[in-house]
């Protein structure tokens, strides 16, 4: 896996991933940025959310569960001094489907958190990880 990050101007950067996708990043105005794009730490958090959502959906779909929607909201706290690593991340999964069993969804979340999601497992080296599940019955 590879990625190249290039400075544009001010505190704006463009990352090009090994698969050829572009991601913009920018800093806050008080740090010389123009607030045109996410901060790098926001992208790191989004990556963890995407990684675990992918895992949970894959596990549930492989189990032939009737999943109609999946979202993961992440709430993170960071250290007050440098390096300002994540110290606590709360993952709130909202899974919509028909006749989903709480135990089944919680097992998928657990497997992602403990075995499959490289991003959140890596972040768990510095942060307390909290996982919550909300189930919504689809019409």
UniProtKB/TrEMBL annotation:
Pfam families: OsmC. InterPro entries: KH_dom-like_a/b (IPR015946), OsmC/Ohr_fam (IPR003718), OsmC/Ohrsf (IPR036102). It comes from the Bacteria. This is OsmC family protein. It comes from Thauera aminoaromatica S2. The lineage of its organism: Bacteria, Pseudomonadati, Pseudomonadota, Betaproteobacteria, Rhodocyclales.
């Amino acid at each position: 896996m590879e990625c190249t990050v290039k400075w544009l101007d001010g505190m704006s950067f463009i990352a090009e991933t090994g698969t050829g996708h572009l991601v913009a990043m920018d800093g806050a105005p008080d740090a010389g940025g123009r607030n045109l794009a996410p901060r790098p730490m926001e992208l790191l958090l989004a990556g963890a959310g995407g990684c675990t959502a992918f895992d949970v959906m894959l596990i549930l779909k492989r189990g032939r569960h009737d999943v109609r929607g999946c979202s993961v909201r992440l709430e993170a706290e960071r250290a007050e001094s440098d390096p300002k690593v994540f110290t606590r991340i709360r993952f709130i999964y909202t899974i919509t489907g028909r006749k989903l069993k709480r135990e089944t969804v919680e097992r998928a979340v657990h497997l992602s958190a403990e075995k499959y999601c490289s991003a959140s497992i890596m972040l768990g080296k510095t942060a307390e990880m909290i996982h919550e599940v909300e189930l919504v019955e689809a019409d």
